[in-house]
Amino acid sequence: MSPRVLHLSMLCAALLLSPAFAADPPPPPTTQELLDASQAADWRTPDPANLLYIDLEAGRVVVELAPRFAPEHVANIRTLARQRFWDGQTIYRSHDNFVVQFGANVEDAAAGPPLGDARAHLPAEFERASAGLAFHRLPDPDGWAPEVGLVDGMPAARDPAGGLAWMAHCYGVLGAGRGMAADSSNGTELYVVIGQSPRQLDRNITQVGRVLQGMELLSALPRGSGPLGFYEDKAQATPIRSIRLASEVAQAERTALEVLRTDTPLFDAVVESRRNRRDTWYLHPAGHIDLCNVPVPVRTLPPR
Amino acid sequence: MSPRVLHLSMLCAALLLSPAFAADPPPPPTTQELLDASQAADWRTPDPANLLYIDLEAGRVVVELAPRFAPEHVANIRTLARQRFWDGQTIYRSHDNFVVQFGANVEDAAAGPPLGDARAHLPAEFERASAGLAFHRLPDPDGWAPEVGLVDGMPAARDPAGGLAWMAHCYGVLGAGRGMAADSSNGTELYVVIGQSPRQLDRNITQVGRVLQGMELLSALPRGSGPLGFYEDKAQATPIRSIRLASEVAQAERTALEVLRTDTPLFDAVVESRRNRRDTWYLHPAGHIDLCNVPVPVRTLPPR
Predict the structure, then answer these.
(1) Domain range summary for chain B, segments of one domain joined by +
(2) Alpha-carbon distance A195 to B194, whole Å?
(3) Chain A hits for B142, Cβ within 8 Å
(4) Residues of A with CB under 8 A from a CB of B
């Protein structure tokens, strides 16, 4: 059901129920009203094998991995997390309006921890065939790609002519750092987007997931004063207590959360509520939304 | 001169100078190469009466005001700065992926310092006539507005049919907070965009300037844990030592900087160097840039 159909049905309901046919239809619901009226089926529980917990002294960042876009990288990241590859490492780069970066240095692998069962070399996974992908297209045009939309909550783009799809660099996206060679990333070096969406990176680097919770623990880190936001003083780097898969963490220690499904009529209505803000504060609804402005709500559940 | 003309002239030069007509043209210059080759006339020195210094314990944020878009608000902000209206106040809101906010609360003016010679009530300045505005249009389409471009370094949009122009909510833009009424802002309450460009605010609120330097002092502030990013613990708020106009500050204390002009062939070439990244790392040039991804370089000069 498109937002337009939703509005039409509301208009019909207003006409049928109203004592006067001339009555104005009720205003379309706001995002909050839609979420308040959501049903259990509008939400999904991410697979714990796809959730990465980045535990810092200040708290936990929860990332959902994107095996549909980067199966080889995600498999390697799972192996690395099981081996606790990143524990005791640091977030050593905080580049204002761009990214924070952590983990190994793909251009100096010898300086990092041993890879163990993980693979040193992976193919680039910049894009994939669009066939077989449940791409939920957004209604508005995008300057960077022929089509944009969501795939299970991941911001994505699609080129129907070329039959390709790829993840889009929006706020909170997790990517796998690479050197000069296209296939030089292996998931040991990771970054998260903390500023205006650097969409110029799309199709130039492998993206592996998206932060669901705890973004503020990354985005508010002090910026590095060195070139590209690297810390000149290593003491400024933020220690990583551990990076683990939720599936490897005891139930009692897991973060119970749900993500709004992005393939439902409710999600379409949420998008429409952001395309044309009806909150009373807004005087000029935009009639548009960019991919990277679309919220994908996450809710925390009480501990089981 | 458009980027296309630049490339054509470079191609002609290559053909004329090359021993073999089949030789490839040299690659277009990167952003850094363009800036390295810039001339003094490519830069401008902002008017000190349009520069606001926000001095925090951690350093100085330099803002350029936008009297072309919000003359009444800018005049009031100048008056308030002269009266040191904000000195000793705090940055009391840090909303992840949205804004930091400081100054008075326009909905509770009695709680703030006296206005003195400043005006309590101003007209909304959401947009202005596009006639008479030196709007330097960008080559790419935008989903939020019919046309986008720069006006003396300020990100802006234009509707030729309606004859209107307005500032666009990009990273680092300074806006004047308002309550429910369109004309409830007066420049006492201010915010700066610290995340993905919230363009849905365009034409809904008065924008008054843009941060030129020191963004990282605002964008990396710890996020508030209360609703909308307000600090629940007031002790988390960041003290403001002073907010002054550069023109009111002794020469020796001023920050000497220049801003790249945005109405020149060099700027067009910079935009093109970002539309199609030719840095060797990039494998897939985007062929597009969004308004809020366009850099407006600022350089610091040695103290006089």
Answers:
(1) 3-44+258-300
(2) 7
(3) 143
(4) 94, 96-97, 126, 140-144, 170-172, 180, 182, 195-200, 202-204, 215-216, 219-223, 274, 277, 280-284, 286, 288-290, 292-293
Q: State the Cα–Cα distance between residues A239 and A226, nearest whole angstrom.
A: 19
Backbone φ/ψ region at A272: left (φ over 0), alpha (ψ -120 to 50), beta? alpha
CA gap B129, B165 in Å, rounded: 6
If 0-12 CB within 10 Å is exposed, 13-18 middle and 19+ buried, where does residue B149 land?
buried
> Dihedral sign, CA of B272, B273, B274, B277?
positive
Residue B294 to residue B288: CA distance in whole angstroms: 10
The structure tokens listed for B89 are: 């106040």
Contacts of B290 in chain A (CB under 8 A): 143-144, 197, 199, 290
User: What tens-digit pLDDT sequence spans chain A (304 residues)?
Assistant: 233 333 333 333 333 333 444 567 788 899 999 999 999 999 999 999 999 999 999 999 999 999 999 999 999 999 999 999 999 999 999 999 999 999 998 888 888 899 999 999 999 999 999 999 999 999 999 999 999 999 999 999 999 999 999 999 999 999 999 999 999 999 999 999 999 999 999 999 999 999 999 999 999 999 999 999 999 999 999 999 999 999 999 999 999 999 999 999 999 999 999 999 988 899 999 999 999 999 999 999 876 5
Query: Which residues of chain A have a CB within 8 Å of the CB of B141?
Result: 141, 143
Residue B286 to residue A222, Cβ atoms within 8 A: no
Chain A positions touching B96 (Cβ under 8 A) are: 215-216, 219-220
In chain B, what are the helix, strand and coil shares in percent, each to the nearest 5? 25, 25, 50
Residue A211 token pair: 């932060």
Phi (first) and psi of residue B101, to 5 degrees: -140, 145
- Report the gap between the CA of A251 and the closest CA in chain B (Å): 26
CATH of A48-254, one of 1.10.10.10, 2.40.100.10, 3.40.50.970, 3.10.129.10: 2.40.100.10
Computed on alpha carbons and rounded to an integer, the radius of gyration of chain B in Å comes to 21
Determine, for residues B204 and A96 on separate chains, whether the beta-carbon distance falls below 8 Å.
Answer: no
Q: How distant, in Å, are the alpha carbons of A64, A75, B54 from that of B300?
A: 41, 46, 17
β-pair type (B173-176, A147-151): unpaired
Decide if B248 contacts B87 (C-beta within 8 A): no
**Distance, CA of A33 to CA of A38 (rounded, Å):** 9
